[in-house]
UniProtKB/TrEMBL annotation:
Cofactor(s) the protein needs: pyridoxal 5'-phosphate
Gene, per the UniProt record: bioA
The species this protein was found in: Arthrobacter russicus
Subcellular location, principal: cytoplasm
Family: Belongs to the class-III pyridoxal-phosphate-dependent aminotransferase family. BioA subfamily.
Protein name as annotated: Adenosylmethionine-8-amino-7-oxononanoate aminotransferase
Any single Pfam family the record assigns to this protein: Aminotran_3
């Protein structure tokens, strides 16, 4: 092997593609070790330092790095077998994981498809909806209703239901389906433990969405949204009562309601699943537009649910699609008799073992208390950002904190400012945000908020 004395960032630059970045973009930071919530980093100029990973490695490392339970689960499974095909075979980690997912999700969700990644679970969910409609004698129902500002992944069908402006549609216009996009749902603020939205805004929004659904129902297979928190589309927190509106409209028109909880599932918003925020009454003014009745009710349950990211605690790539028994029964009775998808690494045993250990940690620990502590710390710590020049709004929900600016963020400058405070941040668009691991202490959360404030102050401008 040729001797190459260049640093790792120098060797990387121009060789490897990084997410949404040019080959000749800024040199990346090298990770030399990771433990708990901290990364040991080497800067392109050779400096070494530690930083809190306030990103949870894109929202998935909820238990932190080198977690003993997760390490042990993966190692123990590796001593048995690391992978087998799932065609015609099964194994304990996969069955155990499916049983656990069925137990912790709402009762109607009875059947599980284990996918490679979040994007693929969305692809599978969309296939489910189309196969379901075809089996019902409605093969013309090939399209979907989604929200503006939504994000569901980078593969083609998932991209096709993501925001039509910011979701890369312009680059691939000939490959994307003609889906229908509802207005971004009205915002909500966390007040006294409740997500509170404006009744009039909800009613106006519900009426517009009802018109869209009625006009396009004959070609729609389903509705797909991120419940309560739109992630990569702008960290938008919205009125959870919108989900009740969608449930009623889907039922009225025979559409499948699909929730993408890849980013929000497993406690990130302060509920185990973000859809649990929807157990709020809907005002009378929204009922005429197709909303649920004004009385409070149980949380809205989708026909199809996608989960991922935190599923394995960030150790390995794995996601899952769950659907109701009714949906599965219709597909099973179709001419194929099967869901038409089958990845090579479906139900990878190492990933399933990690997922079982991750969910066990959540179920046996006080994730709710930890997330509440992070929320409190971020809410308090980010108040200092509200008065900074260039800051539009500051918001938080669960283990999510957001500083929204008026202008796009200078990512290298914001990153440097955060690192100067000992915090790794990865801003995007006009947002400086954090989604830290759940094991952050009060002191850790104070540091993260200070890093975010420093980053926003560095790049906010006049």
């Amino acid at each position: 092997m040729p001797d190459d004395r260049r640093s790792l960032p120098e060797r990387d630059r121009g060789l490897l593609w990084h997410p949404y970045a040019p080959l000749a973009g800024p040199a990346p930071y090298a990770v030399e070790a990771a433990n708990g919530i901290r990364l040991a980093l080497r800067a392109p100029d050779g400096r070494g330092f530690e930083a809190i990973d306030a990103m949870s490695s894109w929202w998935c490392m909820v238990h932190g790095y080198r977690n003993p339970a997760l390490d042990r689960a993966v190692f123990d499974q590796m001593t048995r077998f690391s992978h087998v095909m799932f065609g015609g075979l099964t194994h304990e980690p996969a069955v155990q994981l499916a049983e656990r997912l069925r137990r912790i999700t709402p009762e109607p969700l009875q059947h599980v498809f284990l996918a490679d990644s979040g994007s693929i679970s969305v692809e599978v969910a969309l296939k489910v909806a189309i196969q379901y409609q075809s089996a019902r004698g409605l093969p013309e129902r090939q399209n979907f209703l989604a929200f503006r500002g939504g994000y569901h992944g980078d593969t083609f069908a998932a991209m096709g239901v993501s925001d039509p402006v910011g979701g890369m549609h312009a680059e691939f216009p000939g490959q994307l389906a003609g889906n229908v996009f509802a207005p971004r749902p009205p915002a909500a603020m966390l007040t006294a433990g409740r997500l509170v939205g404006d009744d009039a805004a909800l009613a106006e929004w519900a009426e517009e969405v009802a018109v869209l659904v009625a006009r396009n129902a004959s070609r729609l297979a389903g509705i797909i949204v991120e419940p309560v928190l739109q992630g990569a589309g702008g960290m938008h927190i919205y009125d959870p009562r919108c989900l009740r509106v969608l449930r009623e409209l889907a039922d009225a028109e025979g559409l499948l309601l699909m929730f993408d909880e890849i980013a929000t599932g497993f406690g990130r918003t302060g509920k185990l699943f973000a859809a649990e925020w929807s157990s709020e009454p809907v005002p009378d003014s929204a009922v005429s537009a197709g909303a649920a009745g004004p009385a409070a009710a149980a949380a809205v349950v989708p026909d199809v649910l996608c989960v991922g990211k935190a599923l394995t605690g960030g150790y390995l790539s794995l996601a899952a699609m769950l659907c109701s028994a009714e949906v599965a029964g219709v597909i099973s009775g179709s001419r194929f008799g099967a869901l038409m998808h089958g990845p090579t690494f479906m139900a990878n045993p190492l990933a399933c073992a990690a997922a079982n250990a991750s969910l066990e940690l959540l179920e046996s620990g006080d994730w709710a208390g930890r997330v509440a502590g992070i929320q409190s710390g971020l809410t308090e710590g980010l108040q200092a950002a509200a008065s900074l020049p260039g800051v539009r709004t500051v918001r938080s929900l669960g283990a999510v904190g957001v500083v929204e600016l008026h202008q796009p963020v200078d990512v290298p400058a914001a990153t440097e400012a955060g690192l100067a405070q000992g915090v790794w941040l990865r801003p995007f668009r006009n947002l400086v945000y954090a989604m830290p691991p759940y094991l952050c202490s009060v002191g850790d959360t104070v540091e993260i908020a200070a890093g975010m404030v420093a980053a926003a102050g560095r790049v906010g401008g006049p």
